[in-house]
Amino acid sequence: MKKNSDYVGIDEKYIPENEKYVEETIQYDKNKAKKYIKGGIIVYLVVFCIIFLIVIGVFVFAFFGFHSINKKANGIINNVEEKSKEQFNDISDKAREFEITKFNNPFSHYEGQQVGVKVNSLLNNVVSSNGKNSNHLITVIYDDVKSSDSASIISIESKIDNFTNYSVVFGYDSDGYINQVTISNM
Q1: How far is CA 90 from the centre of its chain?
Q2: With the C-alpha atoms ordered 139, 144, 150, 154, is the resulting torsion angle positive or negative?
Q3: In 122-156, which positions are buried (b, 16+ CB within 10 angstroms) versus exposed (e)?
Q4: Phi-psi region for residue 4, left (φ > 0), alpha (ψ -120 to 50) or beta?
Q5: Among positive and negative, which fits the CA dihedral 135, 141, 147, 153?
Q6: Mean pLDDT for each consecutive 10-residue tract of the chain (186 residues)?
Q7: What pLDDT, on a 0 to 100 scale, did the predictor assign at position 21?
Q8: Phi and psi at residue 146, in whole multiples of 5°?
């Protein structure tokens, strides 16, 4: 083999013709390498684009997935809020009903036909209630007297005969509280 016009190593006649000159082989390999490098860059660009598109796809999928989850979560939260409001309103209604019943209860068993002693007891309860509950005054009507004043109600008591039967009728305000007691002779 010749290198710089000197024989090196093996005799030239035993070396195949295509392997004798190193420079040509290197030149040939350089061209081949350039083709491989160009092809490799294209492959890398294609792979990079595919990975880039996959990453974008994952982000888009995650965005819409989280958006969907967020919508469902908001729906659940709104549903819970509505149920809570309904329950709160139910509790408020029941509390209001309880307050009305609590207020009316001391009087309600006096409604109807009553003997004078019970009517006087009712009038005492009305005086007591009016002293405690200025926002729910009860007006008493008997004969020509109509008043929620304690002194006037006590004066009605003196007119009631203990052994005579009387009719007791209640009037109610718009909320359901007793606000009027009408007493009449039977």
Answers
A1: 16
A2: negative
A3: bbeebbebbeeeeebbbbbbbeeeeebeeeebeeb
A4: left
A5: negative
A6: 56 61 52 64 84 90 81 86 88 90 93 95 95 92 93 93 95 95 93
A7: 54
A8: -140, 110
> Is the C-alpha dihedral spanning 135, 138, 144, 149 positive or negative?
negative
Are 153 and 111 within 8 A, CB to CB?
A: no
For residues 161 and 167, what is the distance between their CA atoms, to the nearest angstrom?
13
